[in-house]
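Bumping with the actual sequence this time:
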Amino acid sequence: MSSTTHPLPAPRRIVASNLPISAQGAFSSGAEPAVEVVNDALELEPILGGSLVRSRVATSKKVPTSNDGWGDIPLDDVPGFGIVLPNGLNMYYLDIAPKSEGVMHRTTSSDYLIVLQGTLTLLTPEIPWSEETGYGVPKETHCGPGEVVLQRGIMHALSNRTDQWVRLFAVVADSEPNRVPVVDSSRPSEEEEEFRVLGDAWLAGP
């Protein structure tokens, strides 16, 4: 991991909300509220000794979301490693330091990662594996600015193998349990398909 000082500015969040409407004429045809626009700089939160820096943007405990309220829009507490908000959405910027190797892991979520700056290296296992055998040499997929990674409950690691910081924007949606079909050629075709459920996992290395 590089010891380079984090050089990226704190992202700016612009929150636009409907303001209350006066009772006088509130229900007349065409009456509309004013819109409040609030600008603020997000807090930079170092993680894992500074190899990752997260800036939380917004959360929602449920979908559909609620647009009630105005002014300060609070962030919900996200359990565990701060990635998946149960039954809801979690949105944040993630900055990855130069020469940083990510930890192979899986969460019960659908993750949408938009690369904004730098080159992200997505590492994924190429062959079936177990904790006893290890995942071997993972597949490397390089993702540049403007590209989107959709992670559907997979084992993966996010690395930065360049000399420049990577910045991405993440939208993490809680998902149904991750599962994969169990292939058994000896089972009659009319039998109901069997599935293996894949839980959350964090690995120390290959």
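The tokens above came from a reply further down the thread. The first strand starts at residue 12 and ends at 18.
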